[in-house]
Write a structure and sequence with these properties.
The complex is a heterodimer. By secondary structure, chain A is α+β, with helices and mostly antiparallel strands. Chain A is built from one helix and five strands, in the order βββαββ. Chain A is elongated and about 50 Å long. The chains are: A alpha+beta, B alpha+beta.
């Protein structure tokens, strides 16, 4: 099935006109996560880590829409606050 | 039939009428392949080389998890797998990206050519060295350029190579590739390609849409890519 991956993040909204084939929703989910990691990896290499974005995934059927928040593509380990 | 191959070759070397006739006599038959067919598989014993007449093809390698890296794109006029003449088997696959028309050149005719026309043998040696130069530029891109510069560089390279065979000018060219194809060339994801294309468009440099590259500012695009065409040896070279 064809899925479309629209990205919303710091530089704005990028609509996916072409889409990609995925066997099912879970492979579409994997594609979305890989895509987020690819984008964030490059931004991080330039010194900015902005995890406020999201990817809206549109399938060809109405019930096949879902969203992946950038932050959900990572396991986050942050230093503890305080003294 | 091999006009684009002659244009590409004459951009770098003078070719006499006798040499042109010898090149034409290399071809045994012409084949057509549909898009997305892998017609040379890594490891197979190969007895002929493939000259690309029309269409786009690529060489690629892949991992067990299905991830594919395209290592070079071939445009009309390229003698795409001349490497197999000396390597006998290839370490990579060759696949059509669009419907392609190819001419098959038996290796024994190439062997004969090295005896009857040693200068043409040196010209084809140059040609495989040129492929190596293109690979080095891709290594630089994959290793060091950021996504936007990688993409910009590939569009500059294709503009230069397609212009040699009359298929591009300073305003643009047709390019029947998908964002997934570009992703496999550049080690990125299709979504990342889409976003980088948007950045090139918003910078007023170029637009890639509906299999068409519109170059709004080719000089600006070259600057973005740090594109130096010297790796394409676009000058007459005496071999």
């Amino acid at each position: 099935m064809r899925y479309y991956f629209d990205v919303h993040n710091g530089i704005g909204f990028t609509r996916d006109e072409e889409g990609q084939n995925a066997a099912d929703i879970s492979s579409a989910r994997r594609i979305a996560i890989e895509s987020v990691r690819s984008i964030v990896r490059e931004e991080a290499s330039k010194g900015a880590l902005d995890l406020r974005g999201k990817v809206d995934v549109r399938g060809e059927e109405a019930d096949s829409m879902f969203t992946i928040a950038f932050i959900d593509a990572f396991e986050l380990l942050l230093p503890l606050e305080g003294p | 039939m091999i006009e684009k191959h002659l244009m590409r070759t004459r951009a770098r070397h003078t070719i006499s009428a006798d040499e042109e006739a010898a090149i034409r006599a290399l071809i045994r038959e012409v084949h057509e392949f549909p898009a997305r067919s892998t017609f040379v598989h890594a490891g197979e014993r190969i007895h002929h080389s493939t000259m690309l007449l029309d269409g786009l093809m690529c060489r690629y390698k892949d991992l067990e998890n299905g991830q594919r890296q395209i290592a070079e794109l071939h445009v009309p006029g390229d003698f795409a797998d001349l490497h197999s003449f000396s390597l006998k088997r290839l370490d990579h696959n060759v696949m059509t990206l669009t419907p392609c028309r190819v001419a098959l050149v038996p290796h024994d005719r190439l062997t004969a050519l090295t005896h009857t026309h040693p200068r043409l043998a040196r010209i084809y040696w140059f040609s495989t060295n040129l492929d190596a130069a293109i690979h080095r530029e891709w290594v630089l891109s994959l290793g060091r350029r950021d996504a936007v510069a990688r993409l910009a560089h590939l569009f500059c390279e294709l503009q230069a190579r397609l212009a040699l065979v009359g298929l591009a000018n300073d305003k643009g060219y047709r390019l029947k590739l998908t964002q997934s194809d570009l992703a496999e060339c550049l080690g990125l994801t299709p979504v990342h390609i889409n976003r980088s294309l948007r950045q090139l468009r918003e910078a007023g440099l170029m637009t890639f849409r509906s299999s068409k590259v519109d170059l709004h500012d080719l000089e600006g695009l070259k600057k973005q890519a740090e594109f130096d065409p010297s790796f394409l040896y676009l000058e007459l070279v005496d071999v």
